[in-house]
Amino acid sequence: KKFNILSKLLDCGVVAVVRADSQEEAIKISHACIEGGIIGIEVTFTVNGADEVIKTLLAHYENNSNVVIGAGTVLDVTTARIAILAGAQFVVSPSFDEETAKLCNLYQIPYMPGCMTITEMKRALEYGSDIVKFFPGSGFGPDFVKAVKGPLPQINLMPTGGVDLENVDEWIKNGCVAVGVGGSLVAPAKTGDFARITEYAREYMNKVKTARE
Ligand code: 3PG
């Protein structure tokens, strides 16, 4: 199951960070992203009732085995448990948390902790993180990835924070396995323009595909 989830996320190469003002908005954003080809959805726990959003999306896409619904901004193991019980297929957090890593390993759910330094990344690898979220990406830039992959060629990095349509190809070309995208993808939700989110999602998918060639 874990390998299946990872392979879908890695194939797609983009995880949509769905941070919204309401459950309804989060659901609409998620549908718009999926329609545009971004099948990796990270529902952040800053959304009230994020676990309900996860359940709703899982039920909606029950017959679409390509879609992967995970939980984001999981700050502690209690939240991770709520997310996993709701059916979250992966767990993302802004920092590394040992207890969360253990819980995810127990249930064989990919854990993607946010790491900035080599020390944190090394720890995440030791605790079995298959994909490490490089956060906040904008604070370092794509060249940092090349530098990290010198001593840690085995690490799978997913930069998040500040990824946009201008720099996404550079992140991928520098060796990132995927990117996490929030604001630059979901911003049109503020004006109710969900069709625009679908267009952006398509553009992200095209850019990642081209950058990988
Ligand atoms: C977040 O925590 O919301 C993510 O890091 C997304 O960052 P972004 O909005 O800059 O893409």
TrEMBL record:
Keyword Lyase: yes
UniProt xrefs under InterPro entries: Aldlse_KDPG_KHG, Aldolase_TIM
Recorded metabolic or biological pathway in which this protein acts: Carbohydrate acid metabolism
Keywords: Carbohydrate metabolism, Lyase
Keyword Lyase among UniProt keywords: yes
Single GO molecular function: lyase activity
Family per similarity comment: Belongs to the KHG/KDPG aldolase family.
Subunit structure and binding partners: Homotrimer.
Annotated protein name in UniProt: Bifunctional 4-hydroxy-2-oxoglutarate aldolase/2-dehydro-3-deoxy-phosphogluconate aldolase
Organism the protein comes from: Lysinibacillus telephonicus
Source species taxonomy: Bacteria, Bacillati, Bacillota, Bacilli, Bacillales
